[in-house]
Amino acid sequence: MTSTNTSRPGVAEAPASGGLDRPRTRVVPPLLVHLLAALVALAAVVALTLLTDPFTNLRIATVGYYLVAVAGLALLTGFNGQVSLGHGAFMFIGAYTVALLVLHVPAFPLWADLLLAAVTSGVAGLLAGAAAARLHGPYLAGATLALAVGLPAVTQRFPELLEGSNGLSFTVNSTPDALVGVVPPTRWQAWVVWVAVLLALVVLANLARGRLGRTLRAVRDDEVAASLAGVHVGRTKVLAFLVSAVCGGLAGGLQAFLLGTAAPGSFTPALSLSLLAALVLGGLGSLWGALWGALALVYFQVWTEDFSDLLHLPTNVADNLPLALYGVVLVVVILLFPHGVQGGLHHLRLRLLASRSPRRGVTDRVTDADDPRSEGEA
Question: Model pTM?
C-alpha cells in the first residue's frame, strides 16, 4: 500500500525543529530580579537618609516596619481572602520578644533577636491559624479582633516580667565601633530596619509569585474548586496565617529596636484596624499597595499635625483630626479607585498605553492588578 503525499507542490516542508531558528531568550529568575530591586531600593533609602535630618530618618524607618506589617497582612487578606483584625497582636509579640531578649540575654546579637521575634510570632500565628481555619467572614474577623484586644492585657497579669502598662525600656547599641561618631544613631537604625524589611519583602515577593501564591489565590477564589484540584484548604489557610504572623512579629521587633521600648499602649486594637485600613487604601492584591499604605500611616499623621498647628486648632480637635481626615481620604480613594491606590495607578498606566497604541487592543485588556479576584502582583 503506497502512501499518499499530502504536501502541496512548490511548498517546502517545515523542518522538524519548527521552522526558522528563533533566538532563545534567557528568563531571569524572579529571585534575582527581586534581589536587584531590593539593592536599588536600599541604595535609594541610604541616599534619602543622607539628605535628611535625624527626625526624618526616624520617620523613614517607621515607614519600613509598617511596610513589612502591611505586606504580611496583604498576603493573608489580599492573596488568601482571610480578613484579620488582630495583626497588631503579632507585632506585640515581636516587640516584647526583642525587649525581653535584649534585657535578659544581652549576648544575643540584634539579628538573632529579630529572628527569634519572627519565629515566636510565627508560632502564635500557627496556633491562631489552626484555630481560625474553619472560620469565615465576620466570625474570623471577630476571633482575630479578640486576640488584639486580649493579648496586651497579659502585661497586667505578669507585671514583674512585662512591667505592666509602663512597658519595657531598653537600649540597643547596634552601631559598629568604626561608625560611632560618623553615622548618627537614627540613620544607622533606619539602615538596619530597611535591610531587614527588604529581605522580608524579597521572600514575600517570591512566595507571591510562586506556587504558594497561586495556591493562596485558588483558595481565596473558590475553596471547593481548590479542594477538588488537590489543594489542602485548611493547611493553606494556616500557612498564610503563619507567614503573615512572621511579618507582624518582625515589624514589632523592628519597632521595639527603633523606639527602645515595648509598651501595651502601642498595640491597641486601633493599630490592627489602621493596618487593615492602610492595606485597603494601598491595594489588597499587591505588595506595592503595602508601600502606599505604610506611607499613608506615617505621613498622613504628620501632615494633619502640621495643618492643626498652622490653624491653631484646639487640642481636642487636633487630636481627632488625623483619624477623621484619614477616614474621609479612605472613603474617597475607595470610591475613585475600588482597588486602592496601586490599582488606580495600574489602571492609569494601562489607559496611557492604550491611548498610545489603540490598534493593539490594550483597552480590551485593561484590568487592575490589585483586583481581589485577579492574579495580583508582587
Answer: 0.85
